[in-house]
Specification:
By secondary structure, this protein is mostly helical. Helices cover 66% and strands 3% of the residues. It is elongated.
């Protein structure tokens, strides 16, 4: 049984606008249409949407997801192509983790510099943030 876009939205948690947007980007294949022009989705759309959700949760951008979808459907692509994309994503995440660690350490240092008992005009945290 085919679902309409509202039913697909409810079942997946993606808004109707998001589903249409992903279709326009080519992340989702164009659905069949009823005689009156309404979109009709079969069960394969749940798999497509789950793929997109999982890839987004791993930090992939929509452009990267589009590339992954292409690789998934290609007869010529090799696993090394997917592996390369994952390696690049891991490197990007490692860089973000390092930046977050640096920010955390800086904030911890700032936090230790303030006893919390002084007036805010003398607070070393606010002074440091002011530059």
């Amino acid at each position: 049984m085919k679902k309409n876009i509202g039913q697909l939205s409810e079942e997946t948690g993606f808004s109707i606008q998001t589903i249409r947007y992903y279709e326009s980007l080519g992340l989702l294949p164009a659905p069949d249409r009823s005689d009156s022009g309404y979109r009709k989705y079969d069960e394969s759309y749940l798999q497509h949407i789950n793929f997109i959700k999982n890839a987004k949760n791993m930090g992939f951008s929509l452009d990267e997801i589009k590339e992954l979808i292409y690789l998934k459907s290609s007869n010529d692509a090799l696993g090394k192509d997917v592996k390369h994309m994952v390696k690049l994503k891991m490197e990007e995440l490692a860089k973000q983790i390092k930046e977050l660690e640096n920010t955390y350490n800086y904030l911890a240092s700032l936090n230790q510099s303030c006893s919390g008992k002084m007036q805010t005009k003398n607070c070393p945290i606010l002074k440091q943030l002011s530059g």
